[in-house]
TrEMBL record:
Flavoprotein is among the record's keywords: yes
Name the record gives this protein: (S)-2-hydroxy-acid oxidase
Cofactor: FMN
Gene3D superfamilies in UniProt: Aldolase class I
GO BP annotations listed: defense response to bacterium; hydrogen peroxide biosynthetic process
Species name: Herrania umbratica
Gene name for this UniProt entry: LOC110423750
SUPFAM superfamilies in alphabetical order: FMN-linked oxidoreductases
Amino acid sequence: MAAEPVNVNGFQELARQALPKMYYDFFAGGAEDQYTLKENEEAFHRITIQPRILLDVSSIDLSTTVLGYNISMPIMIAPTARHKLANPSGEIATARAASACNTIMVLSISSTCTLEEVAACCNAVHFFQLYVYKRRDISAKLVQRAENNGYKAIVLTGDSPRHGRREADIKNKIIVPELKNLEGLLSTKIVTDGGSNLDALANWTRDPSFCWEDIGWLKSITKLPILIKGVLTQEDAMKALEVGVDAIIVSNHGARQLDYSPPTISVLEEVVHAVDGKVPVFLDGGVRRGTDIFKAMALGAQAVLVGRPVIYGLAAKGEYGVRRVLEMLKDELELAMSLSGCSSVKEITRSHVRTKHDHLLSML
């Protein structure tokens, strides 16, 4: 039997061995040249940690709150599509792992288990990720179903008026199963003449005219808090505040939409400054180590969301694999905090990290 991975990256190799190439490429791939995909991870490597020594770190508290919900660690599960392509148990296994680790899972609208099945499978806080479709009535129905089934927030993805060009999927001519949440609402059977049916499906269903003004419509159909995902600039952070969102997720969609968009950790601080504490800011993209989470928190994120590593854990070892990925990141974060002199997440401050920008300033 293969040795247990010693870090989260070890699960990626196990997933590559376990999955058909078409599905591995679907999960692992990014847009076009995959510049942003590489940079999401590399940009973390350019930030150094400035530890403080000789502080009492005999007990470390990783717990935090997200929109008033207590979680055991500042690590949530990002919305990712089609978990059954990774493991037959699909999103139910992922949700149970999140519940066991006492954290929040954001369920993708493009899930392969229904939002009702996921809500019923375990006692946990779930958020629901939403794309707005050309048929607004269908989006409204999904929001209402999420609210009725106890989901605690809506995560609106704002960076996908069209589908990014993921060339591995086009080469592989990927065909994906119909979306469970849309059964009986919208036919998602799309016939393409070559290429990926994902592209055709997304571009056929999603509403490219949806804009900031339309968030008022979304707020009018739900009492749930709304998080906007896909913010990468101070201008959009300020827009998000203007329309009254409850939180912001700094995200480039796991580098699957616009290639050469900035790595998320490199723009986090810009967004945090623009928001100025008015709403919480979260980050996803490229998080592979506890030290990455420490760096994100030092730069102002309240928590991070993790996408691909969760899928790799699921593909390699099912629910147990997802749990191990979350536990590894938690353990690494705890160690990083201990070695940096922080006994709680509140003690992680901007002075604990040095960015490339700080180095340049110090040379002036």
